[in-house]
Amino acid sequence: MKKLFKLDTNDAEASHKKLFRMKKILLLCLTLTLAFTAKAQRSQIPLVYSVEHTGSSYALPALPPADQLPVIRELPDALEGVNSFADWSKRRSDISHMIQHYGIGRKPAMENGQVVARMEGDTALVVHVTVNGHTMKLRSTIRYPKVGRPPYALMIGTSMLSLPRQLFEGRPIATMTFHEKQVNDYGQWGKHHERGEHPFDQLYPQLTQNGAYSEWAWGLSRLLDGLQQLGPELTKIDMKHIGVTGCSYAGKMALYCGAFDERIALTIAQEPGGGGAAAWRASHESKERVEDIDKTDYHWFMESQREQFRGDSVYRLPYDQHELCAMVCPRALLLLGNPDYVWLSDPAMEVSAKAAVKVWERFGIADRMGWSIVGGHGHCQLPESQFPEVQAFIDRFLLGRQVSTKDIRIAKYR
Q: Terminal CA-to-CA distance of the chain, rounded, Å?
């Protein structure tokens, strides 16, 4: 009997060990399955879209008068009402309408037949936009790379290409400048027209109270219409790999252009300052003299923004600039700062960036958004120390190369 009992005990111990090993194997399989499923879901989230605005069919959200808006001290929740990625298109559309309604003015949609494009010679893209019997001509020269084969990725510089040329030399990336004065000839220096007198106003006389950023974003989208209409056979451009970048006031411009057109795969906003990526609320609370909602150029925004949200009324703004940044999601965004220039309000941009990245994080694609705030250089003079971050984003999102953009979240204040 003793021997039989011993055999039974050994059998029980063996069974227990076997069951424990099976549980470990099942747990490992479950973990791997979940990881594989999450990776598969992330891979299904688009890097770019083929249309300007995927949420164009959604109805307008409630847009109360400014004095009826609630006070919101903290940054508004960019993910309000979002339970899955399927909800994001609607939320993004709501944010877009709020920014247009309270901040920059309406970016009008286009109808079939209003845009006609052609190539002038081998390199110049010419786009004619006709609305209300008036025609605007937009013209930009494409600079093709000396390496690679078409169709090429394209980086568009707003006003100019401020990033160093060596970042593009040796890479199969074409470049082009968006000449914003063809749309709205306001400039910070020299003579310019006022509201109601710009080329855009001839097409849309009902939108003369618009700020320049809605009009400039509209203009760049018309260039994309032209590229899309002509196709890669004529333009040599790959519509799935288009980027936009600019610095200072053109950094704001690049951010608005990238946020409001989902055909742009990569947005690099260089030193955009207040009204760009910097949160209005955080700038308002800064003890430094920075570009806040009271101290910015109101040719860029609607005058009503200053009238309705000046001073502590900024807390009634139903959105903030982190949501402008978030509109780029699920596409790629890189913010570049320079804390040596206090006016740029880079600490407020970091606040905004940390809030915005939560949207990418929610969908498991946080490596598509980053920031690099580094001083020790002139305004709009990108130092070599920031080259690696910019190169990584360009290589991955314009060229499709397998490089890491994970954890590019740098902020160095001196």
A: 82
Q: Is 248 a catalytic residue?
A: yes
**b/e sequence 106-130, b meaning 16+ C-beta within 10 Å:** bbbeeeeebbebeeeeeeebebbbe
> Catalytic residue among 128, 134, 377, 379, which?
379
Q: Return left, alpha or beta for 398; rule: phi > 0 is left, psi -120 to 50 is alpha, else beta.
A: alpha
**pLDDT digit string (tens) for 298-329?**
999 999 999 999 999 999 999 999 999 999 99
Within 121-211, strands assigned E span 124-131, 134-143, 152-158, 173-178
Which among 99, 104, 77, 88 has a CA at the least distance from the CA of 55? 88
Catalytic annotation on 379? yes
Residues 211, 201: contact at Cβ < 8 Å? no
| DSSP β-bridge partners for residue 237 | 152
SS3 content of the chain, % helix, strand, coil (to 5): 40, 15, 40
Of 159, 248, 283, 313, the catalytic one is 248
Mean predicted confidence (pLDDT) in 67-72 = 98
From residue 47, give the alpha-carbon distance in Å to each of 50, 337, 392: 10, 24, 15
- CA dist 77 → 159, 355, 359 (Å): 33, 9, 10
Q: Does the pLDDT of residue 42 top 70, yes or no?
A: no
Between CA 315 and CA 75 the distance in angstroms is 9
| Beta bridge partners of residue 254, listed in sequence order | none
Residue from 22, 51, 83 nearest 261 by CA: 51
Q: How many CB atoms lie within 10 A of CB 248?
A: 20
Nearest to 154, CA basis, from 179, 171, 139, 166: 171
